[in-house]
Inverse folding.
């Protein structure tokens, strides 16, 4: 697989990006990487590798840039050149931990939508109690959705869950304010009817409080709701671990208890660790475009590269295209 990587995107770039890339190159013998970024900035962290090509870029797209204009105006940026490599076929997929808005806009305008896909969706795997995780989409690509969009999200999510995660007949849930069939607003009521009449394995409405129990393999919602749920889960997990740490460090007795419970606490932390689940994929584009978390460390970058490899290897985008057109 030929992968284009934005070496300048993310809070800890370029070091975390380069470290993650080098780890992936060592573990995936058929991986070739085109690393885009400022060579002077990246040089202290680079190690020569025969399957990594470093392409110099003078510009960087930041979170302060206007997302819709940045990719078009900063043509010599690491993100723009990375996306161009996918557009021209020089790379099979691309990865960035930079601006989400710019990556979505660039993915749409440069890589392009699959024919028949109404709107792309941002999707990621979130943790569950059993450690299997579930796929949720949309997480912010389209705030104002139509019922037909969510039906396509479900179809794309099922393809990913089946081809990449190996789930034979993935279950699909519709995020709602209750589990009853008639619950929700006009959008969710219309989507419920579409999903029930479709070929997907629809299990009905699901509530946000049940998401982490693994109530469905794929959960669909509009981008406005999905983004808020995602950030609530991330924030709650962070606060929970902070409270646990403060509690265990409050006295000598609790510190001793923490030492005894260290393996169990590590297991809980690993289940909730986003770095093990890869990035968020933009479903509905002609090639895999992966958005890694802005605070990604080397492990998160490695996991996102693994996700790119799986999507390319299992022909996720061509399968989505064939299914949508059929």
């Amino acid at each position: 697989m030929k992968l284009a990587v934005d070496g300048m995107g993310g809070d800890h770039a370029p070091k975390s990006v380069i470290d993650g890339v080098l780890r992936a190159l060592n573990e995936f013998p058929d991986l070739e990487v085109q690393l885009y970024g400022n060579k002077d900035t990246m040089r202290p962290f680079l190690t020569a590798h025969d399957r990594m090509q470093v392409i110099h870029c003078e510009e960087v797209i930041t979170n302060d840039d206007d997302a819709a204009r940045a990719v078009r105006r900063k043509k010599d940026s690491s993100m723009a050149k990375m996306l161009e490599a996918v557009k021209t076929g020089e790379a099979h997929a691309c990865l960035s931990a930079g601006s989400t808005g710019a990556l979505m806009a660039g993915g749409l305008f440069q890589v392009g939508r699959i024919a028949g896909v109404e709107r792309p969706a941002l999707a990621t795997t979130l943790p569950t109690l059993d450690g299997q995780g579930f796929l949720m989409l949309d997480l912010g690509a389209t705030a104002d959705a139509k019922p037909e969009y969510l039906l396509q999200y479900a179809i794309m999510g099922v393809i990913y869950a089946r081809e990449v995660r190996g789930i034979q007949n993935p279950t699909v849930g519709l995020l709602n304010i209750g589990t009853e069939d008639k619950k929700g607003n006009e959008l969710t009521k219309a989507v419920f009817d579409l999903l029930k009449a479709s070929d997907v394995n629809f299990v009905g409405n699901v509530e946000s409080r049940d998401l982490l129990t693994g109530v469905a393999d794929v959960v669909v919602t509009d981008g406005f709701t999905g983004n808020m749920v995602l950030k609530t889960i991330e924030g709650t997990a962070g606060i929970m671990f902070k409270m646990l740490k403060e509690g265990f460090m409050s006295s000598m007795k609790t510190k001793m208890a923490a030492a005894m419970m260290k393996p169990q606490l590590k297991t809980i932390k690993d289940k909730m660790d986003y770095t093990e689940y890869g990035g968020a994929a933009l479903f509905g584009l002609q090639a895999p475009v992966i958005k890694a978390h802005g605070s990604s460390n080397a492990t998160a970058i490695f996991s996102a590269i693994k996700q790119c490899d799986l999507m390319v290897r299992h022909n996720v985008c061509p399968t989505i295209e064939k299914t949508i057109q059929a």
The chain is about 45% helix and 15% strand. The mean pLDDT is 90. The chain has two domains: 1-117+284-326, 118-279.
